[in-house]
Design brief:
By secondary structure, the protein is α/β, with parallel strands linked by helices. Helices cover 32% and strands 18% of the residues. It contains eleven helices and nine strands. It has helices at residues 8-11, 29-37, 63-66, 77-81, 95-102, 118-131, 143-152, 172-180, 184-187, 203-206, 219-225, and strands at 14-16, 42-48, 54-56, 108-112, 136-140, 158-162, 191-195, 210-216, 231-234. An eight-stranded parallel barrel has the order 1-2-4-5-6-7-8-9, surrounded by five helices. Helix 6 (118-131) links the parallel strand 4 (108-112) and strand 5. It is globular, with a radius of gyration of 17 Å.
Length: 240
């Protein structure tokens, strides 16, 4: 196992899209600052813009968080910076802006979202992380992205995201892969990040791997899954 028993991936609950709520939107600089102030690792989501800039945003479409129509990868960074997150003062942050907040303060759990230009995003992300001085780990629902990380940066700590709830995936093959982590032999992940509703997982799928659960929204859920997981990705309740 390449993850130390005292690693932040095990010891520190991870703030899902930062610490957000009220006037602070998810995946905003303010959400990351609030998480860093409380020493929580931060989970973020990444996309590549039309002009090949890396930004932190969860949805593939812009509507829910900005009111704008269209896919995030069809917009340039300048176009995205004109939008506001949930009618707040905050804009969609770039990866470099996230680095500026978290480097030396909060570890980053970086999710590479599935997207048309995903392979290029992986390549650009690896280049950026090789210069980054903070702690981080990388994960994705797409095991081929993680396999590419393995080839380009074998020392990076990497994980596979998965869930039983795969109805949003149109392809039966993708549903099977995401649910069963059937391409783990290619990605060779150090950890598994699974929907908490799917625990406990078969021993064959998690042997010698750290297990994370997402997205935990209460102490009751946490208590229920504690015997099966090493750490949680949380939102919507306070751990103070």
């Amino acid at each position: 196992m390449r993850i130390d028993k005292n690693s932040w991936l095990i010891k520190q609950p991870i703030a899902h899209r930062g610490l957000w709520g009220g006037n602070v939107p998810e995946n905003s600089i303010a959400a990351y600052e609030q998480a860093a102030a409380k020493n929580y690792p931060v989970e973020i989501d990444l996309y590549l813009t039309k002009d090949e800039e890396i930004v932190s945003f969860h949805d593939d479409t812009l509507k829910r968080m900005t009111g704008e129509n269209g896919y995030i990868w069809d917009k340039t960074l300048d176009e995205l910076k004109k939008l506001r997150l949930a009618e707040s003062e905050y804009t969609i942050p770039t990866l470099s802006e996230v680095f500026a907040v978290c480097e030396g303060k909060s570890p980053l759990l970086i999710e590479i979202k599935d997207q048309p230009n995903g392979k290029l995003l992986v390549k650009k992300l690896v280049a950026a992380l090789k210069k980054y001085k903070g702690e981080f780990a990388v994960q994705s629902f797409n095991p081929l992205y993680i396999a590419k990380i393995k080839r380009l940066a074998p020392k990076f700590i990497r994980g596979v995201l998965a869930t039983n709830e795969t109805n949003s995936l149109k392809s039966a093959l993708k549903r099977h892969i995401v649910k069963n982590m059937s391409l783990n032999f290619l990605a060779n992940p150090d950890f598994v990040s699974y929907d908490y509703k799917g625990y406990p997982l078969p021993d064959s799928k998690v042997k010698n791997k750290i297990c994370l659960a997402w997205t935990v929204t209460s102490y009751e859920i946490w208590d229920k899954i504690k015997p099966f997981v090493d750490n949680i990705i949380f939102e919507g309740f306070s751990l103070d």
